[in-house]
Structure formats: C-alpha cells, structure tokens
Amino acid sequence: MRVLPRPRSRRVALSGAAVLLAAALPLAVPPLASAGGPAGSTVVGELVQGYADPGPEEHHGADGGDAHGGLLSWVQTGATAAVRVPTDDVTGLEAGATLRVALGGEVRDAGVTEAGLAPARDVLSAAVVAPADPGAAAPAALAQQQVTVVMLQPAGSSSQRAADRTTLADVVAAVNGPVSDFWVRQSGGAVRPTVVAGHDWTTTDAGCGTPWSLWDAAARVAGWTPGSGRHLLVYVPAGAPGCAYGLGTVGTSLDDGGLAYVQSTATSVVAHEFGHNLGLGHSSAVQCDGAVESGDCLVASYGDQYDVMGVSWGPVGTLNRVQAALLGLLPGAEVAEVRAPAEVALAPVSAGSGVRAARYVDPVSGDVYWLEYRTASGQDAWLGDATVNWPRLQPGVTVRVGSHGDDTSLLLDATPSPRSGWRDDRATALPVGMSVPVGSAGVRVTVLRQGAAAAVVRVAVEVSPVELAYRATGGAAGPLGAATAAELCGLRDRGCLRTYERGSIYWSPATGARVVPAGPVADRWARAGWENGALGWPVSDATCGLAGGGCFQHFQGGSVYVSAGTPATVVTGAVRDRWGAAGWENGALGYPSAEQVCGLRDGGCFQQFQRGALYQSPATGVRVVLAGAVADRWARAGWENGALGWPVSDSACGLPASGCFQQFQGGAVYVSTGTPATVVTGALRDRWGASGWERGPLGYPVAEQVCGLRDGGCFQQFQRGAVYRSDATGARLVPAGPVADRWARTGWENGALGYPVAEQVCGLRDGGCFQPFQGGSVYWSPTTGAHPVDGDIRTRWGQLGWENGQLGYPVAAVVVLSNGDTSQRFHGGTLLRSASTRAVRVL
Q1: In which residue ranges is the amino acid composition biased (Basic and acidic residues) (predicted)?
Q2: Could you tell me which residues are beta bridge partners of residue 503?
Q3: What is the Cα–Cα distance from 599 to 29, expressed in whole angstroms?
C-alpha cells in the first residue's frame, strides 16, 4: 500500500475546526505561548503535536472526504510557556519527547493561515534531551471522572457571546446526560464523566490563538488544579474568532485527566474530546484506488463516521473495537482470536455481550485486523433512520486495522471505488457472499450470512505467504527461477521454506516471507545453522549493489555482509548497531573483515573491519578504533590488557596539523603530522586539557610522560613547552622560552628553584613574564633577560612594587659577597641583604 500525501485545504481561515494536541501533555496548565526569545535563543521543553479536527460542515464539504488541516507542533517549555514550531522542522522526533531547540525567526505557516494561531518559530537545530514517557496502564475501573465546567468568553467574541444562548446548565446537562451515558455504556461503567463544579460566563483577555491561555484563565476562575481523573472543560461561544470547534489534550490512561474546550454541547464533539483525554487518537479511514489496501491509498483523517473518534458530524455510534482495546475496555470473552482458516459468529457490536469482535494478526506484516458487526440497534439504531443517517452508512460487517500516532484506528473500504469516486463513496461494509482480501498473507474474509442476532464470517487463506513472495519476485521468470521442491513447513517457530533454482524463500509468522538468494550470504547463514542457529530467521530480503560489489541480509540475531574484497561475515548486537551508526559499509570502517571475537578482559568483544575495528566492553560501550598511528600506539601498550585499557571514545581526527586522538580508560593517545603518537595520562593530561589541549599554548605532546623525578614528580614534553607535576605542587605548565631556559640552567626541579608552583604569567610591564617556583620566581623582560629572584630580596622587591616599582626588573642573578651578604642588581638599582640581620636595603 502506497499512502498518498493528504490533500491540503484551500481555506484561508479555519472556521469551525479543532486543533487536537497529539502528545501526552503534562497536566499542568500552561497559560501563555511564549515567543521563545530572539533568533538564536535556545529553549528546552516537551514536543507537543496536533491536527486540525473538522467540524461537521467543514468535513462534509472537504475534497476527497478529508478535511485535514496539517500537523501542528509546539515545544512546551514549562507550566507557563510554549513555542510553536513548523512540523517539517521536527520531522522524525517523537511527540512527548523533551527537546533542546535553537530558534530562528517567525514563520507564517499553515497554523497561521488555516488555524488562526500565532506565528511559528523556525528551528535551527533540535536534539532529544529525554525520550517520551510511555505512560501508565489503564485502571480496571473508575467510579467517576470529575469534570469542572467553565463558560468563558475569549477576547474579541462579545458579539458571538451575545448570539450564543447556551447556558451553564446546558453544558452540565450534556456532560452528565448523553456524554456520560455514552461512556458508561461503552466502558461497562469504568468511565463515568460527572460534573463536580461549574462556573457561569466570565470574560478573559486570552484568545484561542494560544489555547493554553484559555485553560489558564478558566483554571484560575474555577480554582481547578490537575490531578488523577480531573478534567477541565471550557465552553466558548459558537463562532468565536480564531477558536476551534473543539480541542482536547491526549492522555495516556483512563485516570490521566485532561483539558478541553468546545463550541457546542453536541454529544459527538464533547464525547470526542473526552476520548482524547482518555488517550484515544482518531478513527480514520483508508481509501485505495480500486483496491482494499493495495496500490495508491489515502488515509482520510476522521473518515470513520461510525465512531465517536471520527468526525463529529451528528449521531454517535458504538465505540469501535480497536479503540476499546486501546483503552483496555474489551473483555477477552468478547474477542475471537482467529487464524485462517476459521469461521466465527459475531454478535452485533452494540449488543453489549457475546463475541463482538474477531481479531486477526497478519503473519507477514504483523498488522492487527478487527472484524465487527454493526446493526441498526442499540447505540447504532440511527443506522436505520435515513433522515439522521444522511451519509448513508451501511449496517454490516466492517474491517478495521490498528495503527499508531494520530490515526489509531483505520476503517478499510471492502467495496473500493476508483480514485475519481472517493468523494461520494461511504459504502465500506463487506457484502454477503463476497470474498475480500485482507492483509499480506493471502487471507480473504467472506461474510457467509448475517441476521439480527449474528453474522457468520469465514477467514481463509488463498495462497501461502511463501507463494505470494515468490510471485512478487516474478515467479519462474524471476531471479529465483523454478521451484526445486515442494514447500516445507513445521520448521522452528512454525516456519516454512521452499527452495528454487537460485535461492530460497523462508517464512515464519514473526518475520514474514524473505528471499535468500544462493551465494556467500546464504552460505554463511547455513554455516551458522540456518534458522536454528544464532542468526535465526531472515528479517529482510537480501540486498546487493552496495559499495565494492557488496551484499547484505538482516536476520533476527544479526546481519551478514559480503563484498568483493571481504568474506561473508556476521555482524551482531551492539557492535553492529555502532557500525551502523558510523555509516555501515560506507562509513570510515568499511566492511567487516573478520568475525566478532569475545571473551576479552572485562567481558569485552571486538571485530575487525577493513579500516579499523570496533571494541566493546560493558563498562565502556562500543568504540571505533580507526587503523593508523593511534591504534598502533595502543597496540604497543598492550591493547585493552595494557595500562590504557579500553577505549572510552571513538577515534577522532580533523584536529590542527591533521591531528587525531582517542580517549582510553587509562589515558589518551594524540598524533599529528609533526608529532608521534603519544600517550597522555593522569594529572598531566588533565592540566594540558585545561590549557586547551592541542589548540592551547603547548601544542601536541612530543614524548611520553617521564616519572620517578624528585619528590615523586613527573613531566611530559610538548611542542611548545612541558607540564611538570609533583605531589606537593600539582601539575603546572612551563611554556618553552626564556623563563623555562633559565629554570633549566638552575637544574630544573633538582635545582634551587624546585618545581613550579603556579602557571607562567605574561603581559607584565614592558612585555615581561614571570613564573613562581618552590624556591623563588623567574622574571623576564625583552631588555633585561630572565633572572631568578628569591628569599628576602624577592620579598623586599615585592614591597617596592615588583617590576612596576622604582627598581624595575632584575638584570642579574643574586651574588654572594665575601662577607656573606648577598646582592642583586635590578634595572633601577641594587638590593643588598645583610647576612647577620637579614635586612634588605636599596643601594
């Protein structure tokens, strides 16, 4: 089935439509739609999506029977703010997920032109911070759903309010009467909406362009707070500018509670929005071009007019069995699980007891089909009233398929029209005696007979899934050639196979029918034990035409890849997933060249590829190690068994000077065109990193770390300096230059100055620099050179203003006189220290 794009409405303003929020909103009332800040701002919040739901007049006049107004999206940033964004900008992101979104400028999309909402904001980038909450299971029974009703006049709707004679009593009567009666009957008493508080007409400055603001205003008036089973229903005047026909948040269970507003007390719209609060999506329909569900097809949103979750057009039929099952309201005794061939007698779905649904799971696609029988009785009595049933919906057996997202139930057309007749074709029931194809496994459904008490339906297989798949390849004239044996069944997992001249087709209920051509992929699967081995059943057909003459096939337990230059090799589990994320065979690693090897240290595994390897351990995950100097250095260190341990990041290149690096448990390896692959570890690595890594003042490492120095010290040489560390002084940078050279002449850390105790500081007067050491400091300027200053002389010089004082920079080292006194010359004078008194004076 190829689903065609949904037709877009040509309306300029959306009149009488509803916006459905299609994500499970947290039940905190968000009153305002924030603009999100200036372009370039970043917001974090939940992705909320919705569709424009038609009112009865709009749906009746829509082209092709589909009044779909386009998917709308918001990022709800908190209890008081939301930003609308173009849906195309968040395609592929799951509704309900928490996103970090960088915003651009305003966009006047369909939400503005069709739904009257505030402009959206362009999305510059979006990332998932947290996945969507799967929600809680539905409770077995609830005595009542507590509803608070607020009559609210939005901004700019005074004339509509004057024309709308609806009272609070009318809305309360609708909820406590037909709406509650409907849900009590459909749920067996598990759902009972009951008004517990009501507040008569009041005005607000809020408008419908930001629905959160309406709910916030209503909640404040009523003193309503969210909670389990608590619902806030707002009534706005019919025709209020910019307001939808109805809007309801979608919950995840019967006790979620929820928010809604409506423009009508019609049972169809109030019960519909309440269904969204309970967790239901739409009941839609599928129309295909002269076929039940193959070829060119269109999903007609809300097109299941039998059901309350379809369009709100008038009478309300029995809740279909797909939706009832989603809410957990379908007793097992009322469902017949059928496998072809089978016959089942269906009681009318409105009967309230007996077998009211047949459920069939397609063994090829996994789709779930539901058969139910509708008669003009009970909740569906209106089917027999030609005045009420103006769409001419048929009594009879109908077929629906469960779906996901916004259209949670899809009604199939058992008597499809060509595309040109879709607009007027509302006949969907199965005619008695006609065999109708359903699903992908060759199953056909036939209504044998039907009457007031029951309809008898037969589900039978026309051809096997293996035969269907063979025909789809072209039969004997196709790539498999003629069959060489009869179909063999009774394999593991109730599977079947058939062999052909140039391959086989394997089928199981869980994996469907898959083509396995003869060749190296099939041979490798055979060596693994066919479907009985670790790979299990194939889950895709073999695919060739990859880079380097490659082919692959996916199986339950992994994949097999082959190319002209590599053998057929199995790739499984986390290693396969990481290889896939790296671009499969088109990525940096190329094809696998050897089988995965496990049993390494710490429960690890690795697999070799053309241009590197993947290494995996429970503690470090799966990491890419590209072939080259970094990998070679890790190898010399002993791979994962050495001091570096397992890689904790992927190989990364593209650094300055064509550099690459990789982080490991015990350190990192860096390489560039001008420096060898070198290990950097511990406190020295951390200090180098804090200085900017290879982009900082030191550049790349040029030699390995050396330890065993005085006082337990270590050092490592870099392109433009070194890092020194001792237990007493920590790790310090010593940039290459005159200060470092002068320290070297004193004997490095073994000399009088000892280890550095702080970083070098430049930008002093006259372009000078200095660095403190344990035994003093080294000061340098372009005109005076580098000289150490220590002890009492250094203290006195500091009191006089250091290099900024009258003495300026030192111009020579300390000199010991014959009497034991010491002196040191500076640019502006000399300091003399008395050996006997330790007094220091200026000469």
Answers
A1: 56-66
A2: 500, 517
A3: 54
